[in-house]
Amino acid sequence: MSTIGELIEDSRKIVIKLGSNTLSDENGEVNRKTLHNIVEQINELIQKGKQVILVSSGAGICGVGAINKWSRKGDINYKQALCAIGQVELMMAYKEFFKEYGIHVGQLLLTRDDFADPKRNLHIRNTLFTLVDEGVVPIVNENDSVSVDEIKIGDNDTLSALTANLWNADLLILFSDIDGVYEKNPKDHPKAELIEEIYDIDGLLQEIDTRGTNQFGTGGILTKIEAARRVNAYGIPMILANGKKMDILRKIADDAEKGTVFFGKA
Ligand code: ADP
Fold this sequence. Notes:
The protein is of the alpha/beta class and 266 residues long. The chain contains 11 helices and 10 strands.
């Protein structure tokens, strides 16, 4: 078993984040096959006695899929309206897939203010604990329809780190469309080397080039590294892996695929 495999094995409370790039296919539509496979893997974790909270992007893409004619409208009202529509589509897909395993899902749409306010914090925490204790998988997303720039968390990497800290998770797993952190953007530099274990984030940032995101991504690699910093500060390790690859959790556990682990300073 790989280091990652041991980490997953030893963790009971796991937060998993899915990025827009993981969920979308090359036409910008929701990749139901990938989504189904991720749900299947989450079920396997639950069957092993683990608890899982999912943080999922993808409302915008689902919205475009549902109401194609709005896709090119750039103004904020339409963008937020599209997310409102897409969030329903996204949850319908999750509900359908989790139902195959007899698992219920619950939706939490959050903004930055919710984490800043101690009372709201407590309520989120209690809701998460209650859902998970009852065997329900909470699915968290930013409340895009109320979030304008000033009150936005802005990306689900940060949201998933805040969620992991709030819930006292044992592990945070981010799924993106790359295997992990490379010395340079692997999309532009196919020969760039993967960094498998990271203990010193400041040192890492001096070493690597972090420029470039994808068409649907919002955060880029930098927000993933900052998410690792946030959870590492609470002693929670973070794995970054390629959620587009089928059965990725099993494969990284068996060393058949690689990923990056952020351990934080010992
Ligand atoms: P997601 O939608 O999964 O959150 P993003 O597009 O926001 O993903 O961020 C991941 C992208 O960051 C990768 O697809 C990659 O093109 C880009 N990137 C830039 N620099 C790096 C790097 N040094 N290592 C890995 N990925 C990088």
